Amino acid sequence: MKRGVKLPLVLSALLLFSLRPYFVAPIIPSPSSAVEIYSNQTFHDLQKTVYYPIEKATKSILVSTFGEFEPELMALLKKRAEEGIKVFAHYDAKSFPKLEEKTLGFPSKGHRVSGLMHQKVLIVDESFVYLGSTNFTMASYKMHDNLLVGFYSPSLAEKIRLQLEDPAYPFLIEEDFPSGRFCFFSLPGQKRAALDSLVSSINNSKESIQCHIFTFTHLKLCDALVSALRRNVRVEVTIDKKSRKGASKQVIELLSKNGAIIRENNHQGLMHHKMCLIDEEIFYFGSANWTKSAFEKNRDYLVRLDHLSGSLKPQLIELFEKVKKFQKP
């Protein structure tokens, strides 16, 4: 009888613990903890992660996305604009020509570039910056595998705002945080520097490379990974299962033949990450898939974090380990 009582209590406690992120406010970056990592695969509520700083904004909200805003977010942004908050949105005008200012209810800029306006950026109160693979849609929050990394830095917020205005932004954006060194490559303006940085890091790898890439077609990056494999570096690549059979098929077959460990997502949503951890020391992420278009045509970005602190490095290692639970060979 006692066992029968205790077991439901234990199960209830475990259930409440697993659901905890959906009931509590997300941790936002701060001067004392300037970098925060969120993924729906580590049971962060990405919708709350996006909504909470927008709801708490006191001055301004800047959003950039490829995908169309989901209706609830659109309504929230419009409400905040009506309350006197300065709201501005960037979006891909070729893919979403109907997203006009009169529809949104706040100022916006539709970008028409040779590729896609593919940057995913949220900046709140000119201080809080959120970057990653997550579009501002319900599917991105709930169904697809995604990442956001939050930063507290007024200077970083201003520089990323400026690069959003300039399709050919030529400058490397750098900042030192207590938890790591940050480098932001605006694409396509920094296409050569971004690719050189990523290839160089792969070429200098010594032990391990873990990649989670939605679409992987860039042969120069594939060649660098093959060279790493020939140096006996452990290379693991996770690809979206539909992309594996489609656009990424050639690269994945080449890597597999050369000894890479290949995985794919084991659920119906997209494996939408664009991230890589090299020797558990250098972390790349961003909006850019590993394609020539991402580096040379799209309005995309690549972020490098290195000199990882004793607190951030374990978080990233844990992130990659937990993400593996949603994968299969």
CATH architecture of the largest domain: 2-Layer Sandwich
Order of helices and strands: HEHEHEHEEEHEHEEHEHEHHEEEHEHE
Could you tell me how far the N terminus lies from the C terminus, measured between alpha carbons in angstroms?
44 Å
How would you classify the helix and strand content by structural class?
Answer: alpha+beta
Quick summary of this structure?
The chain contains 12 helices and 16 strands.
What does this 3D model show about the protein?
The chain has helices spanning 2-19, 46-56, 71-82, 101-104, 138-142, 154-165, 191-203, 219-230, 241-245, 249-257, 292-296, 312-323; strands at residues 35-39, 60-65, 86-92, 108-111, 121-124, 128-132, 147-152, 173-177, 180-187, 208-213, 234-239, 261-265, 274-278, 282-286, 300-306, 327-328. By secondary structure, the protein is of the alpha+beta class. The protein has two domains: 26-165, Endonuclease Chain A (Endonuclease, Chain A, 2-Layer Sandwich); 173-328, Endonuclease Chain A (Endonuclease, Chain A, 2-Layer Sandwich). Helix 7 runs parallel beside helix 8 (219-230). 44% of the residues are buried. The model is unreliable at 9-18 (pLDDT under 50).
Q: Which terms would index this structure?
A:
12 helices, Endonuclease, Chain A, about 325 residues, alpha+beta, 9-stranded mixed sheet, 16 strands, 2 domains
